[in-house]
């Protein structure tokens, strides 16, 4: 039988895996909708919808960060899982900071549209690494 702390740790780690995957799905939908609406002449009226989606993704990213820290703390004894959770958090944070760090380069390359693919790559990688960490954590038990 698991102790209360062990059950809470398993719950936090499971929630982290779930939230990072929901965030990846949100990014995927955000990119898909933005690509669909770019050719629409009423695009300027739809900017409000994009701001709502961006605000929702920012709130979810806050939850991802908090649950990642909790997952790392609860998986501290499981070295491999802890390192995988920390790596997924670093990739996730790098994905959040990409627009801030590389905005001059992205704005300068007007013909190249690699931003959505970079977002998908980073968030997908963080999600996959998280689930590998989940697998190793639960396999250990």
Can you offer a commentary on this structure?
There is one protein chain. The protein has 141 residues and is an all-alpha fold. The protein has one domain. Helices cover 84% and strands 0% of the residues. The protein has four helices and no strands. It is elongated and about 60 Å long.
Oligomer: single chain
Low-pLDDT sequence parts: none
If you compute it from the alpha carbons, what radius of gyration comes out, rounded to the nearest whole angstrom?
A: 18 Å
Give the terminus-to-terminus CA distance. 11 Å
The number of distinct helices, counting runs of at least 4 residues, comes to 4
Major sheet characteristics = none
User: What number of domains?
Assistant: 1
Compute the number of strand runs.
0
Approximately what portion of the residues adopt beta-strand conformation? under 5%
Order of helices and strands: HHHH
Assign a percent range to the helix content. Answer: over 70%
Structural class: mainly alpha
Shape: elongated
Write down the overall mean pLDDT. 83
């Amino acid at each position: 039988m698991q102790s209360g702390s062990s059950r809470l740790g398993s719950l936090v780690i499971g929630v982290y895996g779930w939230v990072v995957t929901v965030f990846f799905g949100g990014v995927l939908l955000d990119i898909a909708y933005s690509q669909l609406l770019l050719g629409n002449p009423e695009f300027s009226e739809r900017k409000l919808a994009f701001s709502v989606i961006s605000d929702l993704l920012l709130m979810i990213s806050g939850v991802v960060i908090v649950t990642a820290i909790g997952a790392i703390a609860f998986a501290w004894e499981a070295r491999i899982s802890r390192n995988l959770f920390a790596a997924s958090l670093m990739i996730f944070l790098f994905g959040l900071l990409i627009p801030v760090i590389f905005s001059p380069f992205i704005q300068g390359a007007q013909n190249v549209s690699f931003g959505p693919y970079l977002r998908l790559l980073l968030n997908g990688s963080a999600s996959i690494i998280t689930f590998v960490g989940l697998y190793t954590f639960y396999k250990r038990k």
